Amino acid sequence: MKNTLACIITVGALFLGFSEVEAQDIHFSQFYFSPLTMNPAQTGFFNGKHRIASNYKTQWKRASGGSPYVTYSGSYDVHVFDKQMKAADMTGFGVMVFSDKAGTGDLQTSGATGSLAYHRDLLGNGKQLMSFGIQAGFTQMSFDRMKLRFGDEILSDIPTGSGQEAFESTSLAYMDVNAGILYNYIYSETIKVFLGVSTFHLSQPQVNFLTTGESNVLSNRTALQFGGSFTVTKEWDILPSALFMLQKASTETNIGLAVRYNTSEKAALRLGTWYRSWSNADAAIVMAGMEYYNLTLGISYDVNISTLRETSKGQGSFEIALIYVLESSKSIVQDVACPHF
Does some domain include residue 331? Predict the structure, then answer.
């Protein structure tokens, strides 16, 4: 009954996000709870058989004049070919949908991807695994021209949409390809670490709305992830994690940790904080979470500490993540990349 109720709650959250269709590459403060948006090599890498993940983020409502940026993603991944795999080897298959809405012009980015990953047991004892993943999908972008007012329209006091800006189209679509590698090492029952690198937009898609000007190519983005699980006592674990991303001249660093208090064998509480920066300080992130049987919930809030705080009044973003895992007879030995899910 507990598993059934948790599954209903999570699946409901997964699809309710589409009631408000959501541009930047999507990313979440709780990157550790968003496996398929972070690294295709995480596909199928978890304790269990099936995994459902849902992430929702809203930000910049005050700074954008009441039109918040809203991002949503939902994913499902599963182990496949279990009977054909030896030792701790695994193969995972997953699908993901995402949606993002940015600014007063309703710049919307939405799409769907499929991913496949192979997890190789390097020593045959489940202590070290190397994972390789690939992801491909379709993305659609659009905006509402009538919600944008350009300089010539303001200076000439003419209606919105009658200015000189010439758009070939207010929507476009492209195919995209991503890939990743993930290494997991179990030193002991109390020390587990992982290191991953993923790369996005390998197909270098063109994103052009204007009829003139240079071709706008979506630059490759590289993401480096690190994390681990360190058991201090039977009740307490320390869960550090870090993310570094590079896209052309832009960089992002997000580093911090959570502590987990195991209230029982099947339940735990989490509390953590992270610091995110671009070229300078960006946000302090606080997170609270809980685990109950196969359900994991994370809620975070970004406190803006950049120069934008004068406009945002320190308000950043609110985010919620839900993970639900269905168990099976074959589960992986470790839970490093995504602890307890």
Answer: no
Residue 120 placed within a domain: yes
- pTM equals 0.81
In degrees rounded to 5, what are phi and psi of residue 40?
Answer: -60, -25
Is the residue at 334 inside a domain?
Answer: no
Q: Which residues of 144-162 are buried (b: 16+ CB within 10 A; e: fewer)?
A: ebeebeeeebeeeeeeeee
**Per-residue pLDDT for 244 more than 70?**
yes
* Residue pointed to by tokens 């009441």: 66
Average pLDDT over residues 67-87: 83
**Residue 15's pLDDT band (cuts 50, 70, 90):** very low
Do β-strands 221-231 and 107-121 pair in parallel, antiparallel, or remain unpaired? unpaired
Which one has a higher pLDDT value, 318 or 64? 318
Phi first, then psi, for residue 223 (nearest 5°) are -125, 130
> What's the maximum distance between 2 C-alpha atoms anywhere in the chain?
73
Q: What is the residue-wise DSSP string for 90-136?
A: EEEEEEEEEEEEETTTTEEEEEEEEEEEEEEESSSSSSEEEEEEEEE
Report how far residue 189's alpha carbon sits from residue 195's, in angstroms, rounded to the nearest whole number: 18
CA dist 82 and 94 (Å) reads: 15
Domain count, the chain: 1
The pLDDT assigned to 80 comes to 84
Residue that wins the pLDDT comparison between 293 and 59: 293
Identity at 36, one-letter amino acid code: L
66 burial via Cβ count (<10 Å: 0-12, 13-18, 19+): exposed
210 domain residue, yes or no: yes
pLDDT band at 213 (very low <50, low <70, confident <90, very high): low
Q: What is the CATH number of the domain that holds 152?
A: 2.40.160.60
Place of tokens 């997170």: 287
Task: Name the more confident of 190 and 328.
Answer: 190
Q: Report helix, strand or coil for 16.
A: helix
Count each helix (H run) and each strand (E run) in the chain, helices first.
Answer: 4, 14
